[in-house]
Amino acid sequence: MARVGNSIIKGIEIDEVVNLLNRAYADEWLAYYQYYIEAKVIKGIMKDSIITELNQHATDELRHADMIAGRILQLGGTPLLNPKDWFTQTNCGYEEPKNFDVLAILEDSIKGEQCAIETYSKLTDITKDKDIVTYDIVSQILADEVEHEEDLQGLYEDISEFKEQIKESLK
Ligand code: FE
Ligand code: FE
Ligand code: MG
Prior knowledge:
Ferritin, mainly alpha, 171 residues, 0% strand, binds magnesium ion
């Protein structure tokens, strides 16, 4: 544990930061798996470009889990050791893909990103001016989640529009 490094944390309990980070850690693993499996089962038009995006996001979520695990360890905590705990600790849950159509998959993922943005926005509020190092990490992750939502929303709109055009052309 970083003894002097942790002495600069003011106005918030380290245990509380560790607990909040572990909840986000659970979210990241579930988000990683959700993207991973979505990229495998997805069906429908323009699916190749979406698979590329889903796989990029999976990589980002795993990197986020890694960033958070590193910070938990620095704080003297232990990242969740059992995947069972992911489901009890998660903020955003896990959206099991039930409909494999491109738009349904994108909707599930957009929902997940919106929850992630809310979670990290709260974490920045909680750590601001109190735990600068955690604040920096959760801010970086927040920026990625905002980008993720934007990317998926853009794809969703492109595909919806493309489907409309096809419908029109068939009239
Ligand atoms: Fe993430
Ligand atoms: Fe994300
Ligand atoms: Mg992206």
